[in-house]
């Protein structure tokens, strides 16, 4: 029988290895370091999902047909589960010329059990819609802008074939075992508990291939990519016969400057900054269709407002972006399967 005994030296070497390994695992591979910040700014995960503020009221209930406790059914280990890539236009863009112009798509993943014939849809989206994740509310007697910006995973029975096929995609991209599915389900629950805030914007220096990314979005398509990567890690082979394009919403800016969290709105020393941030978000107050508002504001005010400053809210703190041409873009570009 083997027994390991660590001397103090072995022990400290192990700690150094552990720290290095953690560092490698935690820092994504394409980060760069300019000045004092690590870019892109790592998305902050929480220990657990906080309760939603009662002020935030969903116009459309989140995940109405999902399990109330977010349970994902356990599959038989030997089952064969088909995996589907699902994509459909965001409902508010299904009509009119927005769809053709911008390809604003929502992404999800479908699963179908060979054993039971049951199928399921899994997606990640805003609890209070995109507008509430992109712009804050002004509340009486609350000094800081107020955000209803949680997003979450929703798992429910059924795949609505017609919905996904209509101007979208429903494509089988692989098969996994029931065991892999169950492993993925545990990961989804953890991911759902720790990554809770929706981030609309990807912020880069410019649209070029060598641009530095300052911030990465955290949205439905990022969830789909994370899940594909998890399945790949577990040994799944995923293949698509068509181009796998995704919608991304970009801002272009110089190196961001960290401003601080809600304390900005409580201290007298940052009173002017607090006023500027509130004024900025006041001009973006959402009305009916958020993206339409964003687009019209950007089109109309590009030169005047955005040549100056965009106040980005990321990881529950504010950052100042010095905007650069072309300021803003919605792209629909290929991101290959892992
Ligand atoms: C956005 O949040 C506000 C404030 O809670 C709420 O009244 C509104 O219904 C939300 N919008 C949507 C589309 O859920
Ligand atoms: C994710 O969290 C939300 C919000 O708490 C919850 O409604 C949902 O059921 C959870 N989803 C999964 C798959 O755990
Ligand atoms: C796709 O969208 C266009 C434009 O909104 C619409 O005219 C067309 O009927 C849609 N196609 C299907 C199959 O629904
Ligand atoms: C805001 O504060 C004022 C003065 O204390 C109070 O009269 C008012 O009811 C408060 N409004 C809300 C919405 O709490
Ligand atoms: C999912 O199940 C429903 C109901 O049995 C069926 O109509 C639909 O075609 C299935 N979709 C897929 C992609 O398996
Ligand atoms: C990106 O950087 C590489 C290596 O420095 C260079 O060869 C290439 O031309 C650059 N591409 C663009 C689009 O700037
Ligand atoms: C999908 O992305 C590729 C390259 O990323 C692009 O050339 C192509 O036009 C995109 N397809 C659509 C339908 O926009």
TrEMBL record:
Reactions that this protein is recorded to catalyse: S-hexadecanoyl-L-cysteinyl-[protein] + H2O = L-cysteinyl-[protein] + hexadecanoate + H(+); 2 1-hexadecanoyl-sn-glycero-3-phospho-(1'-sn-glycerol) = 1-hexadecanoyl-sn-glycero-3-phospho-(3'-hexadecanoyl-1'-sn-glycerol) + sn-glycero-3-phospho-(1'-sn-glycerol); 2 1-(9Z-octadecenoyl)-sn-glycero-3-phospho-(1'-sn-glycerol) = 1-(9Z-octadecenoyl)-sn-glycero-3-phospho-(3'-(9Z-octadecenoyl)-1'-sn-glycerol) + sn-glycero-3-phospho-(1'-sn-glycerol); 2 1-acyl-sn-glycero-3-phospho-(1'-sn-glycerol) = 1-acyl-sn-glycero-3-phospho-(3'-acyl-sn-1'-glycerol) + sn-glycero-3-phospho-(1'-sn-glycerol)
GO terms under cellular component: lysosomal membrane
One record GO biological process: lysosome organization
Pfam families for this protein: CLN5
Stretches that traverse the bilayer: 15-39
InterPro entries: CLN5
Keywords: Glycoprotein, Membrane, Transmembrane, Transmembrane helix
GO molecular function annotation: hydrolase activity, acting on glycosyl bonds; palmitoyl-(protein) hydrolase activity
Function field: Exhibits palmitoyl protein thioesterase (S-depalmitoylation) activity in vitro and most likely plays a role in protein S-depalmitoylation. Catalyzes the synthesis of bis(monoacylglycero)phosphate (BMP) via transacylation of 2 molecules of lysophosphatidylglycerol (LPG). BMP also known as lysobisphosphatidic acid plays a key role in the formation of intraluminal vesicles and in maintaining intracellular cholesterol homeostasis. Can use only LPG as the exclusive lysophospholipid acyl donor for base exchange and displays BMP synthase activity towards various LPGs (LPG 14:0, LPG 16:0, LPG 18:0, LPG 18:1) with a higher preference for longer chain lengths.
Family named by the database record: Belongs to the CLN5 family.
Protein name: Bis(monoacylglycero)phosphate synthase CLN5
Organism name: Triplophysa rosa (Cave loach)
